[in-house]
Amino acid sequence: MNRIIFATGNQGKMREIRAILADTGAGIVSMKEAGIDVEIREDGSSFEENALIKARGVAAASGDTGDIVLADDSGLEIDALNGEPGIYSARYLGEDTDYDLKNRDLIRRLSGVPDEERTARFVCAIAAVLPDGREFTVRADIEGRIGREQRGEGGFGYDPIFYVPEFGKTTAEMTAEEKNRVSHRGKALERMKEVLRENEGFDRK
Fold first, then answer.
1. pLDDT tens-place string over residues 126-170
2. Distance of alpha carbon 169 from alpha carbon 160, whole angstroms
3. Which of 23, 37, 64, 73 is catalytic?
4. Domains of the chain by range and CATH?
5. Catalytic residue flag (residue 73)
6. Would the pTM count as exceeding 0.85?
């Protein structure tokens, strides 16, 4: 059974990934846990390009281990802000800026914008690099709108301001099971599992 190395150091993200990929039977490790420390410049023009850049970089650094490498690039697109922060979501106001500040800034920028025009979506692209060099990408999203205040203690990142009318709460207020079922990352990971199964990604020794 292959091991899956996920190209992230974000522990909140890894918790979601492990829960969603648990039924694959593969060991799921972060790049740090795999002993990989490589600086990757994400200079793509789309979520898919950035995910592939990360996956290729980690695959190259992992050597001939037979592991599957997955990477994601995800972000928040706000229609009233012309799609911002988009592919720059992690770097919005600076890479090391606390998300509480990022969230408060986005709420400030949307001050006066009515609810029906606060539409937004979380987007996630996941790239896979298999041991034989084959590459795949999938994409998924979840539609919602930006709330007027931060709500909820769960999740991470922009979750406290992303309100999903279907649930009547933000993704930070959802249970882990609810979020993994409907989130952009959850849906993209489910699609990637199918791609890997169809291409025997879990069966290569």
1. 999 999 999 999 999 999 999 999 999 988 899 999 999 999 999
2. 9
3. 73
4. 3-198 (3.90.950.10)
5. yes
6. yes
